[in-house]
Design goal:
globular; mainly alpha; about 75% helix; two-stranded antiparallel sheet
Length: about 325
């Protein structure tokens, strides 16, 4: 059942991405986060108080999501195995974001060809938090590719890994914490204290998936004759990011593709300079988006087959032991 559910969920995500009309738990989670943030700021005023409030938000939302997932699945499987399987597939489908990520990045590439730079800037703005109004072709391509490989870990590999290793509740836990981090885990004056717990928890949970994603990229790169470059850039630049995890897949991909990531970008009108990743590489251009997507598709399939195998092995061992 576990392997079947994970396989069906991956296939659905691969084929349809994230249909906007379909009810999605992440949107509900976002609404609850906004409500609890307002309550925390109303109750707590000090730096220590806001940090405590941030811990409570993580415990309430992430813990609540896990409990609800376990209860719903238990009730559905008791009702009928088919009902449980359908619900498990749906839950896993909602935590996977590989198809949606691929579609968004492909839309940026298509816009560059069909609508020009203005349309591509608008599509890129849906992927990144940097200002896209003044980006040229290279800036748009870099934004799309950096987002693609940074999010390949937390949008695809991480939920697959957690689901394979410990089931839907573990995947929901990761997705909820990752959503918390994306909404309140900023290193700004406004969120430094309130978002501390969310950011640190996400860093911990993403530690293994980020490195596993880099290994997948290197494996595909080796098959394509670019493994040595990927390893070189990963070894040199895996820490060149404010996140302890994001530079792992980004540097592996930069080396494999021969591209340069990082540099100066505008955020809310202010220039932010990030360390260069693969400084010897060339600047991305629009055509590189297609190359990046081809690499992403390969690591997506590699991650799926390897982690479904892991899920099957774990469940088989559980049957043998118990």
């Amino acid at each position: 059942m576990a392997v079947l559910a994970l396989s069906a969920a991956y296939l659905l995500d691969y084929l349809v991405g994230d249909p906007r009309r379909l009810p999605h738990p992440v949107r509900l989670t976002g609404t609850i986060i906004v409500f609890l943030e307002k309550q925390a700021r109303r109750i707590f005023n000090s730096q220590r108080g806001l940090k405590a409030g941030g811990v409570l938000i993580v415990v309430i939302i992430a813990g609540g999501a896990v409990v609800i997932t376990v209860l719903l699945l238990s009730a559905a499987y008791r009702l009928h195995p088919a009902a449980g399987l359908i619900l498990e597939i749906y839950i896993l489908f909602t935590v996977l974001a590989g198809g949606d990520l691929r579609n968004h990045v492909a839309r940026v590439g298509d816009s560059l060809q069909a609508r020009g730079i203005a349309g591509a800037r608008l599509d890129a703005a849906l992927l990144v938090s940097r200002d896209t109004d003044s980006l040229d072709e290279s800036g748009v391509a870099r934004a799309a590719l950096e987002s693609l490989f940074e999010n390949s870990a937390d949008g695809l590999v991480a939920p697959l890994l957690f689901a394979a290793a410990a089931g839907p509740a573990a995947a929901v836990l990761y997705k909820t914490v990752n959503t918390l981090d994306s909404m309140i885990g900023y290193k700004t004056r406004e969120y430094m204290d309130l978002g501390y717990a969310a950011a640190r928890t996400d860093d911990i949970l993403s530690f293994i998936p980020a490195r596993l994603t880099a290994l997948y990229i290197l494996a595909v790169g080796t098959f394509r004759g670019r493994g040595r470059e990927g390893i070189r850039v990963l070894a040199a630049d895996r820490r060149r990011h404010e996140s302890p995890n994001s530079a792992w897949p980004e540097s592996a991909a930069a080396g494999t593709l021969g591209l340069r990531f990082g540099g100066a970008d505008l955020y809310h009108g202010k220039i932010v300079k990030r360390p260069l990743i693969n400084a010897a590489g060339r600047q991305p251009v629009g055509a590189d988006i297609g190359r990046g997507l081809a690499l992403f598709q390969s690591i997506s399939l590699l991650a799926f087959f390897s982690l479904v195998t892991l899920a099957y092995w774990i469940r088989t061992m559980e049957v043998i032991v118990f």
